[in-house]
Amino acid sequence: MAEYKLGEVEMRFATLIWENEPIASGELAKLSEKELSWKKSTTYTILKRLCDRELFQNVGGIVTSLVSKQEFLAKQSEQFIEDNFAGSLPGFITAFTSGRKLTRKEIVELQRIIDESR
User: Fold this and answer.
1) Is a pLDDT exceeding 70 seen at residue 2?
2) What are the structural domains of the chain?
């Protein structure tokens, strides 16, 4: 099962893959050197780590995702709410909106989401 927590640097690397997949691992190493100033060995080490965590795969030298960026962010958000708000979405929304007023657009969007979930 994929782990949905990444450090800042891992997230930047994952985003490079998501934005350029499918990508040859050699091309990914060149892109990582350009964008992250990484050596080839660093790219392959981090790529292996993310493949072991079942977020990406490297098959025949072609890197692709096993989890889309949108799916990853959704699962990461769920994990954050579970870890910090005992899984309570209302608790999260209350904390998120305390000290700020929701816009009319935000209220309409939240109401739409609630209505679709019924």
Assistant:
1) no
2) 8-69 (1.10.10.10)
